[in-house]
Amino acid sequence: MSRNKSRALFAQAARCMVGGVNSPVRAYKAVGGTPVFIRSARGSGIVDADRNRYVDYVMSWGAMILGHAHPGIVRAIQQAAESGTSFGAPTAQETALCRALSRAVPSMQKIRLVNSGTEATMSALRLSRGFTGKNRIVKFEGCYHGHSDSLLVKAGSGALTLGVPDSAGVPACVSRDTIVCPYNDSDALARVIKARHKEIACVIVEPVAANMGLILPDVSFLSAVRELTARYRIVLIFDEVITGFRFTFGGVQQLFGIAPDLTCLGKIIGGGLPLAAYGGSAEIMDRLAPLGPVYQAGTLSGNPVAVSAGLAALAALEKADYVRLNETTADLCDGMEAILRMFNLHFCLNRAGSVFTLFFTQRPVRDFVTAKTSDPKAYARFFWTMLEEGIHLPPSQFEGNFLSFAHTPADIQRTLKAFSKAVAPFAKSRCRCRG
Ligand code: KE4
Fold first, then answer.
1. Class for the domain spanning 4-66+321-428
2. Does the CB atom of residue 121 touch ligand 1 within 6 A?
3. Each residue's pLDDT tens digit, 215-256
4. Where are the beta strands (DSSP E) in 100-214?
5. Torsion over CA of 128, 129, 135 and 138, rounded to 10 degrees?
């Protein structure tokens, strides 16, 4: 495939945008080469500047579960924009969206709309500190909750991809209030909480981790986290920016039967526009300004165009067939596993619902340490062969691959054909992946 136009666009972009991108993981640092610049997308397909066509599994990092350019969402955006794009004043549509979110995620009795997952988690942390009067927070190694200072400690996603889980510029006086525990290790969490619960305001967790690549919680892990935080009056925050409306119409919390104190949502609920939310009980949320002393604000919070896209997305999702989406994903993952067996390759494929990650390690991946046994160079070779075969994957080993309701059996067949070509060389070289 020719990518001359992407190459030229990348060179031009690098002169005015840092690294030629507006979010680091897009720069392909982990896989090398020039990032494809996107011209358009529709359904499960994406087209680059050189008019190469791909089946997309980035799907805007999980946001586009209904597929790109969903007609209902596009119409809602067009109609909303004709009535004005931002008012800085309340609208009935915001109430409608928050009521819909509360119905879908009952633990979110009261909600505040913001513009990004980062804003949602950052605000949930401040609210937890304001509510409890305590300062320390607990996160899990490899989980990513956006780029606010307190959470850029042992972070996943782009921070992990670039090897900077602890970002420069975060003052020690901030990061020292962040306690990091291993994911899926409830004993480590119990030790920390029993020793320091008087200082700990909240525990924030991805209930299904997708920023080290996809990692499922052990059955007992999340219930232990809930039990410990409830016992010691610590706010439990479920970061459902990825998992919200991904596995079911609502939060993955409902599938686990665990109600956190606060939930953060993003990505899917905005239908591809900048919209996120955090919410929980009125007892906690009413500590927020203008009712309470915890301040948080935003010029474009509850933006009418983004809210209209979100309402259209939720309306479509409420009727969507999640069982079929998950079956389509299972067909793909079953096919990939059959191909790996055919080549006698034992890479670790983690899957859940409509998300999967192939780790280039032979060890089971259940936390940051085991995720890091993956071979990023092997992933890079795999990534480029898949791209050449018309399959657009995340340019990092430490991300999830996302399907949408628009992915078809033909997409699955095309992906499996490419997959067979992409993993074959590892059989010949008897990949010496670590782990
Ligand atoms: P944003 O600020 O990027 O909207 O959301 C931050 C965030 C919060 N919580 C979770 C669980 C997340 O996954 C994210 C953002 N996800 C990454 C990809 N894994 C965004 C992609 C990027 O950083 O370019």
1. alpha beta
2. yes
3. 999 989 999 999 999 999 999 999 999 999 999 999 999 999
4. 110-114, 136-140, 178-181, 200-205
5. 10
Q: Which amino acid is at 77?
A: I
- List the chain domain ranges: 4-66+321-428, 71-318
Same fold, 4-66+321-428 and 71-318: no
Q: Is 157 in the pocket of ligand 1 (CB under 6 A)?
A: yes
Cα distance between residue 188 and residue 318, in whole Å: 39
The string of DSSP letters for 320-346 reads --HHHHHHHHHHHHHHHHHHHHHTT--
Output the CA 63–ligand 1 centroid distance in Å. 10
Copy the structure tokens of residue 3. 């990518």
CATH class of 71-318: alpha beta
CA distance 216 to 343: 26
pTM for the full predicted model: 0.97
| Digit-coded pLDDT (tens) for 158-171 | 777 776 668 899 99
